[in-house]
């Protein structure tokens, strides 16, 4: 028997997780808008290399501990204490590893500036790594509302430090300072929220249990991370920091909706699905509800964003990044489908199919690395087409395995789930193309955005309220009382106007 509240609770938690992630990304976007008008393409190329190195060691530092805490709900206090002690020891080791490997990273990318930067970032990595257990506990208990508020605080403080560093003329070191402050405050926040009680002595059994679940998951995460950052490796090595900076600005704008969906959704969905891991029917229902939510947001938004690429790049990054416009538009094709497979990782983890997850990640990301390596022969636009081609193919592979092998459903049911968002995206894209074509003749980029975005938003909201009312009602229940009342009142008036 299905639990109708599970999908609702998942959506509510997803909304609060999204609020936190979107808030952090918007703050980061604001900082990026300032930096793009201050730093050069070469500086952004170096920042991309810094982000790649730090992110790689961050993946290693978690070792799947937080996901294991979510998955194994029967962990007792002594086992959690063992994991906490292990994560502290691991944090020291990963920090030392990043410090010592800094010269190797610099030699690979042919840039000695990476040596001191990597060593400073290793300090922040320690704080990120040590917070794996309390983070897992908060996710397991679905306390995403609290996480959202306090992580936004940490991100805001990091942004303030970064902007002050830019004011002082610190260049990319301002970004390094931002990462450090955010990591340290974020770690303090999760420990404070989790309020971990004193634990007992260390025992190896819990660690063995974690690695029995997360061993393949960790390797899969490493492979996926390298695949997602294949452009940084290929462009940074073959073309240098300047072209990498141009690509980085386009990729950052493209990844905004993609990473937001995955970051907001996966922790929530894993927590929800792990509680029903033995009931495939309930899991399938929750999965399709989330896919419908993602498609309703991502497909129309990204389709219109591709049309408005010149205006969006100019607004966000300024007039010096015109080379990023065609790259963003090509990547936008991938952004229309990539968010739809974001829930698949949670399904693999909830069913403990971590070995499958690893094999799929290895296959998919090898394919993307190959297509990007071929594409770099044709410059930055070739890299973008290589990434998009690989992303579309891997989307098909992941979807086939998730639907047919794990959830026991058909492609026809999936298509039925995304049919409305797909049709809406097509209508809005056609409208945006016509209006933008005419508006560009007479108006500047700001006015073009206004003339397209305002009517598109109205059409979008009326369409969703008319044909996806139940989805909006579920979203309304996750909001605070005032916006909840406003949204429900608006829906009721719309229904009355339609005679429903």
Summarize the helices and strands and which ones pair or pack.
Layout: H1 4-36, H2 41-62, H3 65-71, H4 77-109, H5 114-130, H6 132-140, H7 144-167, H8 173-194, H9 204-228, H10 230-238, H11 241-274, H12 280-307, H13 309-317, H14 324-335, H15 344-350, H16 354-375, H17 380-406, H18 411-442, H19 445-467, H20 469-477, H21 481-497
Helix pairs in contact: 1-7, 1-11, 1-12, 2-4, 2-5, 2-9, 2-11, 3-6, 3-9, 4-5, 4-9, 5-8, 6-8, 7-8, 9-16, 10-11, 11-12, 11-14, 11-15, 12-14, 12-18, 13-19, 14-17, 16-17, 18-19, 20-21
Describe this structure in words.
The chain is mainly α and 500 residues long. The protein has a domain at 38-228. The chain is 84% helix and 0% strand. It has helices spanning 4-36, 41-62, 65-71, 77-109, 114-130, 132-140, 144-167, 173-194, 204-228, 230-238, 241-274, 280-307, 309-317, 324-335, 344-350, 354-375, 380-406, 411-442, 445-467, 469-477, 481-497. It is globular and about 70 Å long. 49% of the residues are buried. The model is unreliable at 496-500 (pLDDT under 50).
Main attributes of the structure:
globular; mainly alpha; 500 residues; 21 helices
Low-confidence spans: pLDDT under 50, at least 5 residues? Answer: 496-500
What does the main sheet amount to?
Answer: none
Mean pLDDT: 82
By secondary-structure content and strand pairing, the structural class works out as: mainly alpha
Q: Assembly state here?
A: single chain
What is the 3D form? globular
Total helices: the number is: 21
Q: Give the beta-strand count.
A: 0
Helix content: over 70%
**Could you state the order of secondary-structure elements as H and E?**
HHHHHHHHHHHHHHHHHHHHH
How far apart, in Å, are the first and last alpha carbons? 31 Å
The rounded Rg comes to 23 Å
